[in-house]
Design goal:
- The protein has 255 residues and is of the alpha/beta class.
- It has 2 domains: 218 residues, Glycoside hydrolase/deacetylase (TIM Barrel); 35 residues.
- The chain contains 6 helices and 9 strands; from the N terminus they run βαβαβαβαββββαβα.
- Helix 3 crosses helix 4.
- The protein is globular, with a radius of gyration of 19 Å.
Length: 255
């Protein structure tokens, strides 16, 4: 049986709320409970200019929580400090991966403090750019109530390093026949065409959307490890080949 979840990234005080409200209205129409990646203290310059400062930001977050939306800790400041690609080697930018444990602990403690101050429960961690490492997990385990990591490359939820993992595999909707799939959207950059595709998909498949409490987590096995490594290195190999082809074409043009 197939299961779908949906995650919205980068909720912060300077969002263009009209772009977000169309998602909220759609989810409420079909009683879908999304995962919302909430930035506790945004310092990302790109996100700071999306819209006007919302003085009721935390009231909005609490309102979403009351609707049973799942609030996730989306890092601390959403500010990239290095080019470390983390456990999954996905992106060459990170707020956490590669930093010493004590610095990551400071970040997690600061984020937790803000959420507690605002009365927001965050059972789930979402790393900006999908980049984090074992030290991030150690900091979360020691200083937060996070139980689930919203990330991973497999096709079903699993348990590893003492956390439940809900893989995030797709950047937009796609019909599947089995397994558990998370669709990851960024309302600030989502096009009208992509949103219309989402609307149509949800209208036809809303009965397959589930909440976190409905998921079943299995133990992470050695077979899962090799699957994950195959996915990672296959992607790296494809990207390397693409880069080499692009460089070769550029050299030909220059000549």
């Amino acid at each position: 049986m197939v299961q779908y979840l949906i995650r919205l990234d980068d909720l912060c005080p300077t969002n263009d709320l009209k772009k977000w409200e169309r998602f909220f209205n759609l989810f409420d129409l079909y009683e879908i409970k999304p995962i919302i990646a909430v930035i506790p203290d945004n310092h990302d310059p790109k996100l700071s200019v999306c819209g006007d400062l919302n003085p009721y930001y935390w009231s909005l977050v609490r309102h979403l929580q009351k609707k049973d939306y799942i609030i996730g800790m989306h890092g601390f400041e959403h500010r990239y400090l290095n080019r470390n690609s983390g456990l999954f080697r996905l992106n060459k930018r990170s707020e956490f991966a590669g930093l010493p444990l004590y610095i990551q602990e400071q970040k997690v403690k600061a984020a937790v403090s803000i959420f507690k101050r605002e009365g927001v429960h965050t059972p789930l961690f979402i790393a900006p750019a999908h980049t984090f490492d074992r030290n991030t997990l150690k900091a979360l385990d020691k200083h937060s109530d996070v139980l689930i990591i919203s990330d991973g490359l497999l096709r079903s939820p699993y348990i590893r390093f003492g956390f439940g993992w809900v893989p995030v595999q797709l950047s937009e909707v796609a019909v599947k026949s089995k397994h558990t799939w998370t669709f990851n959207y960024h309302p600030e950059t989502c096009t009208d065409e992509a949103f219309e595709k989402l609307e149509k998909f949800i209208a036809e498949n809303h009965k397959y959307f589930v909440s976190l409490s409905e998921l079943t987590f299995k133990d992470y096995t050695l077979k899962d490890y090799f699957k994950e490594q195959y996915i990672i290195y296959s992607r790296l190999a494809r990207n390397f080949i693409k880069d080499q082809i692009s460089r070769f074409r550029h050299l030909k043009l220059v000549r």
